[in-house]
Amino acid sequence: QVQLVESGGGLVQAGESLRLSCATSRSIFGVYPMAWYRQVPGKQRELVASITSGGSTDYADSVKGRFTISRDNAKNAVNLQMSSLKPEDTGVYYCNIRINRNREYWGQGTQVTVSS
Question: Could you report the per-residue pLDDT of 20-31, keeping only the tens digit for each?
Fold first, then answer.
């Protein structure tokens, strides 16, 4: 069973920054693509940022230039640095790892609230 342990959510004001972290086991870290999604009530979970095993990154248009996804090899973690936060960034953020087309795992979710 793959475990993803998220941390770093919280309440901030618009314009401030937060960093989310998602730790997993050393045996699979860096082997499979990982991503951050977010979900707000009444809407589907949406992809925010992703990073491949080779280190290529991709971002939702709404966060380009403000969010950065990266790997922390010392901690077996994927981080999401969020800057210039907006109220519309509010939601529950989930870490994801995709082992193959039929097998993926999710973290427990961490709440991010941005006040205006």
Answer: 999 998 888 889
